[in-house]
Structure formats: C-alpha cells, structure tokens
Amino acid sequence: MFEDVPPLPGAEGAASPGGVAASALDHAVLDAVFRQSSVGVHVLDRELRVVRVTGPAFTTRDASEEEVLGRPAVEAYRRFGVDVKQHVLRDVLDGGPPARDVLVRGRPRGDASREHVYSVSVHPLYDPAPGGADRPPIGLVATVTDVTDRVLAEQRLTLLYEARERIGRTLDVERTARELVEVTAPGFAGSVVVALTDAVLRGKPPELRRPGETPLLRCTAVSGSGRADGDAPLPEPGAVLLPGLFGERLPDGPELRRWDGEVRLVAPLAVRGQLLGAVAFGRPPGADPYTEDDLAVVEGVTAHTATCLENALRFTREHIVMTALQSWPLRPDGETRHAVELAQRHRPGGTGAGSWFDVIALPGARVALVVGQVERPGLSSVATMGRLRTAVYSLTTLDLAPHELLARLHAVTLRLAREQGHGSGDGADEPAASCTVAVHDPVTGRLDLARAGTSLCVAVRPDGSLDTDLVDEGPLLGEDGPPFACSSHLLPEGTTLCLASAARAGGGPSQARVAQALAAPGRGPHPMADDLAALLAPERVLLVARTLRLPASDVAEWELPGELSAVAPTRHAAEERVREWGLGVDPLTVELVVSELVTNAVRHGAPPYVLRLLRGESTLTVEVRDGAATAPNLRHAKAGDEGGRGLHICAMLADAWGVRYEEDGKTVWAEIALDAEGDGGRAAG
Asked: N or C: which end of the chain has fewer CB within 10 A?
C-alpha cells in the first residue's frame, strides 16, 4: 500500500547507526501510522476529497473503499452520522493555523446504537520538493481519536460539580427538589420526576426505611414530557406516585426500571437510613441508554440532594419553632386601647433574629412599650428572646422605672450568658441584646424612656415636628452594663411614638427617609407603620403608638392636708364619686381601701398628699401619692396590736396592690375589680 510513498527529504541512501536504510525506516513509520496506530488518519486533497483513510476512528471496516475514497469529505462521512465542518478544513487549506482538538459526533457502523465523540486535528500537507513549504498546501491530513469515554467522564464530573454548586442554595425542600431538576435536565435526562414523602412536605422528620415498605410519595418537581407517542405522560406536581413510576418498592440505590415500555433510572433520596423521597430520570427517544457509570454519578448527585433536603427540613422545623417563640405571648389590645393607638409590624426574614415587641398594661392606666432584639441570629437567640421577654413581663409587675427595669434585665442576661457559656470557654453563644422601654401615662401625658443598645426611637408631635433625640443610646444588655440612658418627656395628646428593633451595621434607614415616612402625622398609626416598615431590614419589628389622654370624666383627684382628720371626709368624697360613676363595686370596699391608704400616707409619709381615682372598664384604681420615698411594709399584726393592719386590709379587699416610686416620692395603688353586672360606669360618666 505504501510502495509509492516517497522517502523523507534528504534521507535517500542514508543508513541508521544499526545499518537499516532510511527508506526502510520511512516505510516502517508510515506503516505504524496507517496500520497500527489507534489514531485514525485521513488524507484529503486540495478539493477536500478523501484520498486515503486508515485507523479505527470513522471505521470503514464494513464499508468499501468506493464509499469513501475519492468522495468529498462532507459526503463521505455523512453516512457515518458525522457532520464535517468544511469551513475548518478550508481555513487550514488556505494558509490558516492547524485546527486542533475539534470535537465532532457520529455513529460508526460498528456501534451505531451509541453516539461517539471524536477529537479531530487538521494539519496542512506541503510538497516535499525543495521550496514546497513556500507554496500552498497540496492537501490536508486529519487525525481522529475517539474521545467518547473522556467526554462522558468530563460530563459526569461537571454534573457532580454543578449539583454541589446549585443544589441546596436555599433552605426549602420544594425549591431543593426543583434545583435537582434544573441541574439534570435536559443535559443528563430528557425527563426528571422528583417525589418527596408526605412527612417531608409537611416539615416532619422522615421515617426510617423498613424492608419491603415504602411511604407515600408525592410528585414535587418535574421536567420534560412523556414518551413520543404520548402514552406515558409525566405526572403533575402533587400526584401520588406509588405504585407507579417508581414501582412497587424503591431500590436501595440507583437502579434501571422499565415503566410503560420506557427504561428509567430510579434512585432513592435517603440519608442515614431515612427516606426523604425518590427521583426518576428518563432519556429521550433515540438517546443513548444509561450505563453503570451513569448509576455511579446519580448516586453522588442524589446523596448530595438528600443531605440538602435534610438540612432544609431541619431549618424548616427550626423556623416553625422560632416563629412560635417569636409570636409568644400575645398581649390583648383591650387593656391598652385607652392609652395608645397601636400599629405593629414584623418584617420576616427566616433567620430568627430574636426581635420582639410587647405592649404591657400597667397599673394606673399606664402602658409599657417594649422593643428588643437579641444579637447573633439563630434558634438559640430566639430562645433567649423568649426568656428575656418573659423577664420583662415579670419585671413590669414591680412598677420599676424603665432604666431600673433594664438594670434588672441586664442581670438576667448575664445569668443566661453564664448558663449558655458553661463549659464552652469561648463565649461565642453568650447572649447580648438591645432593648428600649417606654412607659406612657395617659393621665399626665408623661413618657419615661430608657434604652440599652441601638434602636430606632422617634416621636412625631401633632404639629408635625420630628424628635429623633428622645433618649441617648446605652450599652447592650449583657455587655458593659448599667447605667442605662433614660429620659422623661411631657407629650401632647396625639404624639406618635415610633420604636423599632436595632438594625445591623449599615442596615438601618437614614434619618431623612424616616422623616419622610413619618410626615403628615394626621394619617394615623397604620399608614405610618406601613411606610416605615418598608425601610426596615429583614427580621426587624416596629411599634407605632399614637398617645391618648384618659378623659377627665374618668379621673377624680383630691389634694389632702397632712392631718388624720382629713381621712373621713376624703373617704366619703371617694364613695360619692363612685356612686356618681355607677360602678359595680361595693362602696364600703372603696371606703375601707381609701381610708387605709390615706391614713398610712399621712402617718408615715411626707407632703404633698394626693388621692386619685381612675375609672376603667374592668377595674377601679385607687392611688395615694406622697413625698416620702420610704416603702410601706405589709405586716401581720398580733391580736393585741392597735395598728399595722392597713395594707393587710387593702390586700384582702383589693385584687392587686403595689408601690410605684418616682423622683419626688411614691404612689401606693390598689385595684378593685368591677362587678360585671354593674351598669358599666363609663356610660354614667
């Protein structure tokens, strides 16, 4: 075959060191290239006709030379399913650089059921005569190598890489199922069906797999279409898929299954013996069937997907717990609606930032507004938030000033830090929190504020003026500690107070945007809250409270002389006012409570002395204020003692009593529940 092949230039008559003629070596080299090499060699002339072919690639074993030789390359190789890129050949022939590693696809006659990928490199052929290299090429030589296995291996590695990069980007089970579909279709499969168990879809923990049993599976994500003849359409999301697409039972690993005449690759989605779902892959008609190597790559993809599903399921369950903690406990609006008009907003983000707000009714018709946030988001922060929230609610029953309440709450936070950091040594999970406490008195219009950490605290007065300097920032709870910043203000009725939990660095709205959102205070709390909530970072809470004043008809007040002789007329005046109000309460009870509180103030307190009655919807509040800071003690008098029974009598007759300390004295109060069968009181006023 190679007798007419000329020797290499300059090699005539030469001999190798071993005595072999150079021409013999030339023929040996060509024989090795054309007969023994695994690389296919294709020689084309200047008209791009095939003049010589050898090698296994594009095999002509089952084809005669007449089918290939002398024919244009485009026509000759089309019968093997190879689309020759004629422009590449022409560019090299016209003096362009050699083309290297050009991938083409085809189906050789020896393996027509499987598509092959070939790497083709094209080089010019020059006349070996002197000066031939300076003239145009006399033809082309193309070397062809079957790289099907290499390309398939690269595709499988790429699929595994994309699965790890793109699956599990969100902590949502349904989104994770859709990501599995997006990664594998249409490249790896023409159709993909992902089904999850009912337990996983409901956010419950998956069950352990039992031999011979398969839980209910529902279609969650699907891509592609059924068979070409339309006899086997793919299921719709939500459809029950067992028995059916996945068979009567699920395999322990990836397995080929036949369904309605179509072979599918079925694999479970399981982790540590727990079944979360299953996936079925199908190739389009005419595509290459799945192989053992495909089973191996599917095992890697499904294992990663199952891990992502487990993480998403765990997050879903934690999010349910965090949501429950975030919304507990709820405060009734009825107890505070005569002190403030409220609008509450929470911008969820799913991270569990530990933000909370509370509106707590206090004795004397007052109301406490609380906004706080635990640092370092997560489930532990939400749990800490719940404990701090309970502590705030308990501390408010002590009638503490806001800054004193924060000091007690700081001690609670330090105790929680010691408990959570016990044994860890690094303090990484030790809690710290910001908190703002505002107490509004609807009788006087006084607002007492204290703040730990950074938070939004703004007041909009009825004339539209904005006050952003209500109280200075204080240290975080659990860190530097007291003293905490505090202030007091007398607010006109209709002032709007805006409190929001702290934002991370750079995450809070600017003062100008806040001012714009709070402009036109006559709009009401809810429109203002909507505008301001849009500026908040995720997982922040907001309270917008419009201050009210208690109607003068619901308040009765007397200044008292510092003499015991004033006790009798005072209790009679209180009894008369209660009768005028028409409250469902025993007048004798009111007389006794007023008498004991006034007597105790005159004997042990200091002037000035003031008695105040507050009519509520369900209670009557009796308050006696004096200028002494000494605390009254509840004593248990002996049978022969002449005194010491005043507070004991009040505690027996009233439903609640307590002491509230102020800068210039104290207030002792008692609440008496109204009879539900009374005439309601307010209508009589």
From this structure: N
